[in-house]
Structure formats: structure tokens, C-alpha cells
Protein 1
Amino acid sequence: MAWLRSIIRNDLAGVDKYRYGKPVSELQRELGLERVVRLSSNENPWPLPGSVINAIQTSLENVNRYPDPQSQRLRKLLAQKWGVSTREVIIGAGTEGILHSLFHSIIEFGDEIVCPVPSYPLYRIAAIASGARFIEVPACEGGTWEIGDIIRACTERTKAVILSNPCNPLGTIMERDRMLNLAHELDSRQVLLVVDEAYAEYVEDPGYLSGIDLFRDIGRIVITRTFSKIYGLASLRVGYAIAPKTVVEAYDKLHPVFEVSRVGQYAAHAALLETDFIRNIRLKTVSERTRLVRSLSETGIPTEPTRTNFILLRHRQSDEIYERLLHEGVIVRKASDLGLKGYLRVTVGLPEENEFFVSSLKKVLVQLG
């Protein structure tokens, strides 16, 4: 069977598998724990509104049939929400699914994708899967990037620059003026800017420039968003993008057919209409985030400023704390898996989950002396 190794792409030898947050069932099975709190995947922990539950139940009536391959009903609602044409909307299987098909539709083998890091690891995987070279631009001290460094990383083979705003895993945003500067510089060089706004709905900072506004200003950029975070539909894998018509047409030639289920389409459509629900989730998340940061500060653990539903806490023994928290029944995220050593990324959970995390963390810190 040795010949099987010879058919695997050589460049995959240097590609690490995506390290996802540990599943609750796996930890319970390994350690025999009854209670496990997962604060590792930045999900919305609050229950869904009744309208979304009803939409899911309605969608089950015809699961023996293929879903609408174009997700037209959801596509029209998104176009109406953002004031764009339906021909400028992409519906896909979450941000990950969209990026894989997007990169395949624009990349020739050997082209480059430039990315400020640290960042979401799946950007790199999606770029390499398309045959692109992945060019990293490290952050400066303070966790931000010089626009000039990003521009200088671009060559004649660069097809796109991808970044998350707000940034995962840093939790920071790129300010309005800097984002405008970057977008116009890349446009002048005919490099596509791709902005992942998975956490945009949590931002309340007036200095934040939504990618939708950038799209209206320039037009030649791609904005991706997801229903997996504040909308609470992580299991259903629904995301969308606003993109130039030319890009959407190319995307439609390559994306998997029927990639978004009927259940996902119905649920996302209903969730999009729940503006009061989203507003309340944002307020509750920000309130819990503030309370959690205060509790960590009282414990002596420093945290980084964040505009998202997760917190970065700093400790020189972060990986050891992660392992010990597992034994207490708390799953957080090792930020070292995301390119940040000495940090843990913690999702803002329900009040009782956050309290359990803080009490468990205190116990672990005592164990570590």
C-alpha cells in the first residue's frame, strides 16, 4: 500500500490538521464527568427564539427532497437587508465552506493569499487546498498590523488578502481609517480584499467600519458573515458573502450543489428577521463579558480588550491551565493552537457557565501555586 503515499500532495506534509475545540461527549467519556461546560467555540449559548424553532420544524416536512440549490428565499432577504442585488450574494456552508469555494474560483496554482496573523487557522487550510501559497504578515507589538507591511507582502502573484475584522483570535478591530486605506491600496493593485466578519454583530464601537459600507464604497471586495455565532445556528452550517457579481458567477460554477440544507435555509431566514433577539443577545453578551473580565481581574488574571463574544486571558502556564481545566469539566481554547502562546481564549457563556469557569480557574491556580 506504499503507493498510496505517493499520490498524496507533497505540500500537505507541512499542513497541520485544524485543531477544533474538544467535544463535550469526548471529555465526558475520557474523564467520566457529569457536568462539562464548553467555552471554546464562540457559540451563542442562549436558547433560540420560537420563530426559529418553528421554522426548523416546518423545514422537516420535506427533508426527503433536495433543498433549493440557490437558497433563493434566504438570498433575497439578505439582498434586501444590505441593499445589494441578489447577484451579489453568496450562500454557503459557513465561512469555511464559502472560503474553500471562493479560493478555488479565483486561484491559479502558485498564486498567493496574504493574511495578517494570528488568524483563523482555516484561512490557511482553504488557501492551500486551492493550490495557493499562504503568505503570513505577523502582527506588530500591540496586536495590530502596519498597512504598509500587508501591502509589501503582496506580489504580482497575490490574488487576495484575507483578514478577520473583528479579529479571531485577538478580539480587536481594524479602525475605520486604516481599513479604508488598506481597501483602496489593494484595489489600486487589483488585489481582492476578503473580510471575514463572523463577529461583526457584537461590535458597538463607532470606530468600526462595516465591510458592507466598504463594499458600497469600492464594490470590488468580498465580505463573509455567518449564522454560527450571534444567530445561534452553529450546527446548521450556514454562512453568506457579499461579493462582486463577477466573483459570485465564478463561485456558482464550483461550489458544492445543495451544500446548504433545507433546515439551514429555513432557520437562517427566520433568524435574520429576529432583530430584537439579536439586539438582546448582544446586550447580554456584552454584560456577561464585562462581568467575566471583572471576575478574572479580581483573580489576578489579565485579559486583552475585545469587541467579540470571547476573551483572551494571559498566563505563562496557559497550556497547563487548559489541561487542568479539562479535569474540572471546563473546555476553553488553547490560543497556542491559534498562533498565540501564553494565552487562553474563553467564550462568553451563560451566567452559570461563566461562574463555573471562574471557580474552576481559581481552583486550578491554587493547584499551580
Protein 2
Amino acid sequence: MQTHKVREMFPPERMHTADYLKLLGVPALEALTSPFDPGYDPATLLSHLDQSSHLFSILKISMACWMVANESATRSKVAAAKRFRVPTVTGGGPFEVAVAQGVLPQYLDLCADIGVTRIECGEGFTELRVVPRDVIRMAALRGLDVQFELGKKHTGPFVEDNIQTLIDQGQRWLDSGALQLVVEARENACGVGLFDESGRLNRRFADRFAGAFGLKQVMFEAPNKPSQFALLNHFGREVHLCNVRLEEVLRVEIYRRGLHSDAFAEEKLRPVRKHNISGANPGKPNAQTGHHRLLS
């Protein structure tokens, strides 16, 4: 009995993930996610930078954890971000405490010496006694950029009466030199900012901020899966999300690119191939069965 030797087929050159994403119709995107570090150890942060730094717009060294951790660890994390060419920003809470305690110049000195790129300002739980222009001037003298967070942390969801007030406040900070604005959602996106007590996104209010500032200048805090998916479904893949946990960055980014099972059904997010057979969309779900048509 004659046997036939099976010839193994090898591709002429290596296939890369970027090539395959392009083949799928996934568009090339700029970094649009700002993850936060609530106190990870340096090795964990370094691993996430190695895996996902190309997806980070700016890394938030969040809360005040960086000030009570071993200082060498804090400095090593900021230095690691620099090696991966990822800018860093401190959270807004330490800024508010510094202003309330009358030590803003010293706080800015510390941020500059630690090596962060930017500070976040806000009045989420205090009332500022300084004007935006003065803060930004002081920061600039130390080589620091500024962003401002809109909204209170403890007064519940936004209401109609305060949306325009927040927009006016944000515009004052931008006019004074702030680079971006952040819309508050805390750590749970529930009963705060754009999210009601059950975590539902107020799309009309979200549109007010996007319309006033544009998606390039306003970032939306999205600390959990429902808030992340809701904002991406509403605005599409160009929305800038922040306060995303490091371990959730890749999930956010596959959703943004329409590679998540839920995102694939969203017209705004689903990849579109430029050259489909007979002009068909091979990824469109069948309305009757929910199954996808597969073309060879």
C-alpha cells in the first residue's frame, strides 16, 4: 500500500496581529484610554506597561496612594512609564487637599520632582480658593501640564440645573491653559456624575459635554464594565475613557474595536472590511437566527 507524505505548508513570512486586525477591518486608532494605578506594585505596573502601553493615552497615578507608598517605588513607576513613553498624571484628590491645607506650591514641587507630566485639578469635595490662571501658571513654572475634573464626588448624579455651570467652569479652565477636562464618575459610576443610582448613563447630559468641548478635549471616567460599554456604545470608538483599571484595558480596547461579542453587534463599533465578497458584510448578524454569515 502506497503512502503519501503530507507536505506541511508554511507561510512565506510571519503573520502579525497588526496585519490581521487590518485584514478584519479594524481601523488604526490613537491611544484613547487613560488607565489608573490605585496603588499597584511596581512589577505589576511594569508588566501592564509592557503589554498595553501603546494603548495608554496617559497613566493616572491615582488617589494619594503614591504619596504614602515607599517613595522609591513611586519614582520607579513614574520612570517606567517614561521608558514606555507614557505620560503620567496625578489624581485630583491630592490637589484639593493641598489647596485646602495651604501647601499648593509644595505639592507642585513634589509632583515635578517625582517626574509626573501633568496634575489633575478639581473641586470634587472642596471649594477652591485659587483661580485657574494662577494654578496653571504655577504648574507651568515647574514644567507641569494641567487637566481639570468636572463634578462633585458626594452630591449624586448631575441634574439639569448644574450642567451649564459645569460647562462654564470647564471652559474657564481651558481658556486659562488646561489641556483636557475629565467628567467625574468615581470608582463605581453609580449615583454620581452622568450615571444614575442604577448605573444608567444619562446620554443627553453626556452629549452636552461632548458638544461643548469635543471628544478630543473631554474624557469620561469609566471605572467599570457597564460604564465603559455604555459610553463606547453611545459615542463610538473615538470616545476618550479614563479611570479604567489596568487589568480592564485590553477588554475596553477589544470592545472599542468591535472584537468583543457585544460590540460586534454595534454598528458604530463593528469592523468593516473594505473588500467584502459581493459587497456583503460577513459579520452582520442574521436577523432571524442571530448567527453570523461566514464567507470563505
Protein 3
Amino acid sequence: MKKPYFPLFTDISQKKILIVGAGKIAQRRVETLLEFADNIRVAAPQATDRIRQLHEEKRILWIQDSYRADLIKGADLVLAATDDPVCNEQVIEDCRMRGIPVNTSHKKELCDFYFPAIVRQGDLTIGISSGGCNHSEVKETRKKLERTLK
């Protein structure tokens, strides 16, 4: 049995984060990360209305282009969140060659880290993960915690 991932809370406020993809999953990642980071770039030819809005508000930078390896240059953290497994796996390969931690939305076995469900209240931050195994249980646990902490 593979050991579980260790939950690590770290300051990402000044980290350069790249999200490849700009659909619903990428949008959820962006909205969560905005609570913790200021330097978020999103690369995709098309984007959700919310991604476009965040770009127009200058809260993120949307690079309206398909993925290319040079986009990860200088990134501290990368999330591959496209609906194209081949593209996601290319992102992973490029990141691994450069020692950049990477997460992908399509295959948990390829992730260097998992993107947790997050509950925040004041100074309290709770991250919830099932090791990529049970997303519905994580979602339900997040909802229960939010109700409990209100």
C-alpha cells in the first residue's frame, strides 16, 4: 500500500502559479487559490465567463493560448486542468523535467500533490483530502464542517 500524502500548509502568497485550462475545474481551482496567492496565470485558448472576468479585474492573468512548455518557465506550482489527457500529461512531463510540483485533474496517480477541499473561517483553515479516492465524501465532509463552524 502506498503511503498517504502528508498535509502541508505553506505560504504561497508570492508563488508563481500556472493553471493550464480554463474550464469549470480550472475556475474552481482559481477561485480557491485567490484566497492564498496573488500571482496566478491561466493558459487556455477559451475560458469561462468567470475566468474572463477575473482577468478583466486584473486578479489573474489569462494567457489566451494553447499550452506550450515555455509557459511553465518560472512557475513554482502548476495545475493541469484541461479536458485533454494528452495535454495534461505533457504538462506533467514538462514540470517533472524542471522539478516543478504539478497536479492534474484527470489522473490522481500522476499528481505530486492533491488539491484539497478547503474550509475557512477567520484564521482557521482546514484542508480535506481523500488521497484522490473519494471526491463525494470530501465534498460532503466540507459541507458538514462549514455548517458546524457557522
Protein 4
Amino acid sequence: MKNKFILLLFLPFFACTEKENPNPKEELRGNYPTSELLYFGDANLPTDNITTYEGIELGRKLFYDKRLSSDQTISCASCHKQELAFTDGKAKSIGVNNEEMPVSAMSLVNLTWNNRLTWNGKSTTLEQQAFLPMKNHKEMNQTAEITAQILSRTEDYPALFEEAFGTNDITAQRITKALAQFQRILISKNSKYDKYLRAEYQPTQSELRGIQLFFTHPNAEQGIRGGNCGDCHLGSLTSGSTLGFEGLHNNGLDNDQNLKDGLFSVTQNRFDKGKFRTPSLRNIALTAPYMHDGRFQTLEEVIEHYDNGIQKSQTLSSLITAASNDFITDPNGEIHLALTEQEKKDIIAFLEMLTDQEFITNPNFSEPK
């Protein structure tokens, strides 16, 4: 259990006004998590980067600043657009010099409850993760150290760093800390599903069936039908990499001959080949195309993959191989979830419940004026 009694870090998210908070420079401390977000579970909060109003605002400015890239054309927001739930709508993101990334841009949502960031699970904290795209020659192609030198020569940044950290020293570490503070308040918690959990919304019959299917592991012998989604996309966060769970799986996209490295690139363990982070499905209806390489354009294609498109390999997740609504084994050894067409529609109805309009329009997350 990590730091339950730490700074209440969701300050702009809760839109405190100056009147409500007459001293915004004071570090607001409180019991975390609040009762409103208890159903999200324990958060991954550092003790060496306490979130403040000033840190958040500095991080937001940095997030939208193209001077973080070598050719001054790419900011963090270039690949993480608020209206697309902080994705970019591309199968492969584009970095400096029009370089194509090997993976798609993952949605930045509810990251404070995650312990694995990036598709291959390399980063375990937001501070650590912030270094990677900056120094990657295909993404931003400029180290945080060089960025610190550039920002030190500006008129506005030294004062902003002093407000956030006590002195006007601009360092690589402070840049990543500020970016992490801003990303921690990118919280989606007001979708129809959240309102349902808080007894503020009554789902349709299709949505209710979708919820049941999503979180049910099928057992054909016992007549229990399920979509098996919640075995990997856990709980109300619908994320695999929550605290206590690594959340990286081989979900049957490729066979052994075409398997990508995934977690293997980090661990060099052959049993990790093809394992990628299981992201949150929050706002999933807005974040197409899907999967780490953006191969699926629609939610219907995603459901069809899990229903009839699973490719077998040595590291295929047992959570997939052990799930089917059909007690008759395929004579060719193929894996089928065996959902009905109505069940597929019901699951998608639930997935669309995860769209949070407040999240994608919250002015506290948008580019500073």
C-alpha cells in the first residue's frame, strides 16, 4: 500500500476556485484516496514529487511546449490530444523529422493508479517515463538536459520553476517531475459507468448485459456466458497494470513467427515475447485505432479478434486459452470465445459507457492561454 496520506493531487481536476482555496500555493494535504474515488483502489504516489498547483501548471505548460523537441515541431500534446482522450488517432505516432514510431500513442488516463507505463512496460513511474520520448531520436530527439538549457534562457520559465520548486534552477529532473505532476491529474471519473457505480445513472438493458459479460469469465460446462474482458482489464479502472498486477499479456495478435518483442525487449526473458501492456479502456470509443500497433480500426474489429481471431503462440495468455462459451472443442484446435452477435453489441454498449465528456473538455487539461 503506497502513501495513502499524501498530497491530494487532483487539484485542477476538482476545479477548486480561488475563493474556495484562498491560498493555492499551500501544498494541500489530505487523506488519499477521497471517498469519491475509493472504487479506483490504491494509487501509485511518489514521496519525492509532491503535487502542487504550481507544479501542475508548470507541467501543463511543458506538456504543450514544442521546444521540448529538437526541431521545435513536437510537443507531448502532439501525440496526446485531449479531444482524443490523449491519443492521436494514428496507428503509429509521428515524431520529429516525420519519423514513424513502432507503436501507437497510448491514452494518458488515470495513470496514478498504474505501475506499468509504455507498451513494453519499461517505465514504472511517470517521472521515469517522461525521459523516454524526449531522448528517443524518433520522437522528440532532445534530452531533458538540453531542454533545461533552452528553457533557462527564456523569460518566463525560471520564475515558473521557482514557484514550483523553490528556486529558479531548471534541471532535467525538475522538468520530468513537473510533467509527471500534470499527467497525474488527468483523471477520468465521470463517465456513465462511473455514474452507474455511484448510483447516479441507470444503464440500458444492453449496457447492463454488457457490464455482466465484460466482467464474467465464461464457463460453458456450467452455462456461464462471459466476454472474458475483465480478466485482463481489471475493475473499475479497466486497466491491467494496477498496483499488484503487472498487466502485460500476449493477447493473441500474432503467431510465433510474427511475434513482436514487447516485454521481452526489457527483460530478455523468452517467456515475455509478445507481451504488451494491457491499457485502461477508459474513453476507448475515442481512441481508435486499437492495439499497440493500431491494427484494428473499430471496436467491432477488436471484439471479433477476441471472438475468432486469436493467434496461438508459446506465450499466449492462459486467460485467453482458458475462456470459451462453447463446450465443444474446435477440431482444428482453434480458439473461439463464441459470443453471439447480440453479446458483441452489448459489450460495445458497455465500452461506450466509458466515455467521459468532462475529461476531454476539461479546460484545466488543455493548452494554457
